[in-house]
Design a protein that fits this description.
By secondary structure, the chain is mainly α. The protein is built from 37 helices and no strands. The longest helix has about 35 residues.
Length: about 700
């Protein structure tokens, strides 16, 4: 039996409008009367009451009718809520195309929630042809319009790489925006990223805080996630009793996963008195609610006969349900049932297939069930390496140790297997194991490339650059000779060896440049600086790159001065300093660097623009003082600046107000400018009659263009 945090989920909700605060029955009656009089908003409000059963008997069909009335009367929330009912088949026959049409109507009318709801339909291909690009655009539109749900749904696309390149860091930013906007699932999703360290620095304590925020905001799954942290003592003090309370809260709130986790607590007597019958009921509730792990955990109880009469056929059926629902552990357990003929006809091929399915999904038990074989060991090794490359420490340790155990159980290890074990040692921080395997390989073949690769990695971990350089030279020296042997392990790791060859070339080049730079060669310093800037063949290090560029620049190397100037502009590796950057670009330009001259021009134009902006700000401030003193001309000139955004933040409404003030003060140009605003509807409602009146006043005041 296992506890799980589950996955962060996408939630689309019905918009419930806030009802007046007096008695519910009276509120419903007043809304009914207002709706009957044709008030579309009242119809939508009343629909919410019937939808939720607030002050009236719940009646979903009546709610749908009222939403339709509201929508027909132009109340966009009515369209959105009615679309939700058609999407879910509540009070009406489910009609996804109709739902999409209503969401489109709401979105077109400016209700950003409707845009995100429509985006969800395009994302899933429900009622419309699936179109991730369209979904992305709609969620972006909703998010930009202030919809926290839109930001959350947009974040999920970025987190999962759907319609856009996968980008956990951008997803985290959007989840934060959703959370800040009061959308509790957004807080929970952001907590998930902090818990796993995806797109953000791993911070389980902050994850716990976000799960708490989500839980407090009514998102039941957030309570379940927080409960797991309290159960495991991760980011918060270990407290099984509090974990059980949170799981209960999650379960009561409709999170099936919370019911399963609470069932786990009752089955094991953790934080609650052990109660197997209660555990069975909770796992059944979870399974019925769609939590695949709940089906698996219930199956375990049926297999053991704990809290229920032992029933292997029922257990196998539940394991199948768990496996079909995406729980890899359910596939593993179902594989065991087929292997042993427990509740199903014994079928070893089916058992192996299920174990492989579970193993491929990252379940260590499934990999173990494949049996102790070289293929099993290599499968686990591949999973561990993928986890290591992804920075997934949890998955790394859950697969690396079984992989090592499986390799150790083999009677004979070839050199390729020794290399795998060495890489697992490096991935898990066991440098002694990696060194021992390099020794074993070298003892068999003194110049073996895989042994040298292990030793280079060990030297890098220890920060021993001299050894990295020496070993890289050894690797290149033996490369052609060793590759010509056609060893099977070289073919198996052909891509990795080729990458290492290029890295060795870079390291050798860096060594030669280092020697040249130390000997006073400015070009050598410059090129070594470029390598540190990009991390090619050497560790990426902006501070070291800046130091080398400075060394080159001081020796008269113009491109070095230019590149150092760029770093000062960006504040990368050095403090941000435009003035110093300008002097470096000037030095580069004088030294013949075209890029230096170009960058110097950019800095000078930027400085000119800054001076002009400062002058505009100062002029606007003086005009404000004069306008406040009653000088109508100053009010008009200040209005022009607000209209154009010169020295002030562009604000057409403020401009119109100042033109009015100027006009009232007898400034005819103010009357004319205000008339233009009314003519085009800029900062004020479009009003042709008002325009004509203002133009007449301006004309009378001597503004000839107003007389036409």
């Amino acid at each position: 039996m296992r506890m799980s945090t589950g996955k962060h989920l996408l939630a689309v909700v019905v918009v419930a409008l806030s009802a007046p605060q007096d008695a519910e029955g009276q509120n419903a009656e007043r809304l009914r009367l207002s709706c009957d009089e044709g008030n579309a908003t009242a119809c939508s409000y009343l629909g919410v009451l019937y939808h939720n059963g607030e002050g009236v008997t719940q009646d979903l069909a009546r709610a749908a009718t009222l939403y339709q009335q509201g929508c027909d009367g132009g109340e966009l929330v009515g369209c959105s809520n009615l679309g939700d009912m058609y999407q879910n088949g509540e009070g009406v026959t489910q009609d996804l195309a109709r739902a999409a049409s209503l969401f489109q109507q709401a979105c077109d009318g400016g209700l950003v929630l409707g845009c995100s709801q429509l985006g969800f339909m395009y994302e899933k291909g429900e009622g419309v042809t699936r179109d991730l690009a369209r979904a992305l655009s709609l969620h972006q539109q909703a998010c930009d319009g202030g919809s926290a749900l839109g930001c959350n749904n947009l974040a999920l696309l970025h987190a999962n790489g759907q319609g856009v390149p996968q980008n956990s860091a951008h997803a985290a930013t959007l989840f934060q925006q959703a959370c800040d906007g009061g959308y509790a699932p957004g807080c929970s999703n952001l907590g998930f990223l902090y818990e796993k360290g995806e797109g953000v620095t791993r911070d389980v304590a902050h994850a716990a805080s976000l799960f708490q925020q989500a839980c407090d905001g009514g998102y039941a799954l957030g309570c379940s996630h927080l409960g797991v942290l309290y159960h495991n003592g991760e980011g918060v003090p270990q407290n099984s009793a509090h974990a059980a309370t949170l799981f209960q809260q999650a379960c009561d709130g409709g999170a099936a996963l919370g019911c399963s986790n609470l069932g786990f607590m009752y089955a094991n007597g953790e934080g609650v008195t052990r109660d197997l019958a209660r555990a069975v009921n909770l796992h059944q509730q979870a399974c019925d609610g769609g939590a695949a792990l709940g089906c698996n955990n219930l199956a375990v109880l049926y297999r053991k006969g704990e809290g229920v009469t032992r029933d292997l056929a029922r257990a196998a059926s539940l394991f199948q349900q768990a496996c079909d629902g995406g729980a890899a552990l359910g596939c593993s357990n179902l594989g065991v049932a087929y292997r042993n003929g427990e509740g199903v006809t014994r079928d070893l091929a089916r058992a192996v297939s299920l174990a492989q399915q579970a193993c491929d999904a990252g379940d260590a038990l499934g990999c173990h069930n494949l049996g102790v074989s070289r293929a099993t060991a290599d499968s686990l090794f591949d999973l561990a390496m993928r986890a290591s490359e992804a920075g997934d420490d949890s998955s790394l340790h859950s697969t690396a140790q079984p992989a090592l155990q499986t390799y150790r159980a083999l009677e004979v290890l070839d050199l390729d297997a020794h290399f795998h074990v060495g890489l697992l040692g490096l991935a898990t921080g066991d440098t002694a194991l990696a060194r021992a395997r390099a020794d074993t390989i070298e003892a068999a073949v003194p110049d073996h490339l895989l042994a040298t690769m292990l030793r280079i990695d060990l030297a890098r971990l220890q920060g021993d650059t001299a050894s990295v350089t020496r070993l890289s030279l050894d690797f290149l020296d033996g490369y052609d000779r060793e590759m010509a042997t056609g060893r099977a392990e070289y073919q198996a790791h052909k891509n990795s060896i080729e990458v290492r060859r290029r890295e060795a070339d870079d390291e050798t080049a860096a060594h030669q440049l280092r020697q040249a730079c130390n000997g006073g060669d400015a070009e050598g310093c410059y090129n070594l600086g470029r390598m540190h800037r990009t991390g090619e063949g050497v560790p990426q290090d902006d501070a070291r790159a800046a130091s080398l560029y400075e060394q080159a620049c001081n020796s008269g190397h113009a491109p070095g001065c230019n590149n150092l100037g760029v770093m000062y502009v960006k504040g990368e590796g050095v403090p941000q300093d435009d003035a110093h950057a300008t002097s470096l670009f000037e030095k580069a330009c004088e030294g013949g660097s075209t890029q230096g001259c170009d960058n110097l021009g950019i800095m000078q134009r930027r400085a000119d623009a800054a001076r002009l902006q400062a002058a505009n700000i100062q002029a606007a401030a003086r005009l404000q003082e004069d306008c406040d003193s009653g000088i109508a001309t100053a009010c008009h000139d200040l209005g022009l600046r607000y209209n154009e955004g010169q020295g002030v933040q562009q604000d057409h409404s403020r401009a119109a107000s100042l033109f009015q003030q100027a006009c009232d003060g007898g400034e005819a140009d103010g009357c004319y400018s205000l008339g233009v605003m009314y003519d085009v509807g800029l900062g004020v409602p479009k009003d042709k009659a008002r325009t004509a009146s203002l133009f007449r006043k301006a004309c009378d005041g001597g503004v000839s263009v107003a007389c036409r």
